[in-house]
C-alpha cells in the first residue's frame, strides 16, 4: 500500500507543482496517504525564490493555492481514484535547510549544522549553489552543502551582536 501511495505522489507531483508555480509559490513537499476510504493529500508550499529573505506565505495565500491545487486534483480524479482530503501548509521554523534557497532566506540567522565529523552552530552569510559561508565563533568558514548532513535554524530571543552581522556584510535591517 505504501508503494501505491508513493506512485500516486509521483503521478500527481508534476500537475501539483505546476498549479503551485502558477499561483506564485514553490512546491516543497507532496505526500499522499490512505486515510480510511479517502486519500489524504498533504502539500507543503513556500514562497518563490524571488520573494527574498524573510518572505513567508500568509493564510490568504494558502487559501488561494489550496483552491488551485484542488482544481487540478479534481481534473485528475482518475489518478486519485476517489474522494480525497487536501491539506496545504507552509514549512515551519523547524524545517531542515536542504536547498540553497533555504540558506539564502535565512541569511544572518543562527543555524545548527551537523556534518559527518562535527556539530556546530554558526551564523549564515552568503550562499551559492555549492555552499554557504558561516560565522562559527569568530571564524568565517565556507561549508559545502555536500558536507551538511542536517541543518536547522536556531530560534534567537535577542538581537544578534552587531559585530557578527557586520562580519557577514549585514546590518540590523537584514534581521527579523
What this model shows, in words?
This protein is of the alpha+beta class. The protein folds into two domains: 2-89, GMP Synthetase, Chain A, domain 3 (2-Layer Sandwich), CATH 3.30.300; 100-174, SH3 type barrels, CATH 2.30.30.100. Helix content is 31%, strand content 34%. The protein has a five-stranded antiparallel sheet. Strands 1-2-3 form a three-stranded mixed sheet, covered by helices on one side. β6 and β7 (139-144) form a beta hairpin. The longest helix has 21 residues, at 2-22. It starts with a helix and ends in a 9-residue tail after the last helix.
- The H/E string reads HEEHHEHEEEEEH
Name the shape in a single word: elongated
Domain count, please report it. Answer: 2
Radius of gyration: 19 Å
**In this structure, how is the largest beta sheet organized?**
5 strands, antiparallel
> What is the CA–CA distance across the termini?
44 Å
Q: Helix tally?
A: 5
Task: Strand order, main sheet: write it out.
Answer: 7-6-5-4-8
- Classify the beta-strand content into a percent band: 25-35%
Proportion of residues in helical segments: 25-40%
Low-confidence stretches: none
Q: Architecture of the largest domain, according to CATH?
A: 2-Layer Sandwich
Family: Belongs to the RimP family.
Function: Required for maturation of 30S ribosomal subunits.
Keywords: Cytoplasm, Ribosome biogenesis
Pfam family, one: RimP_N
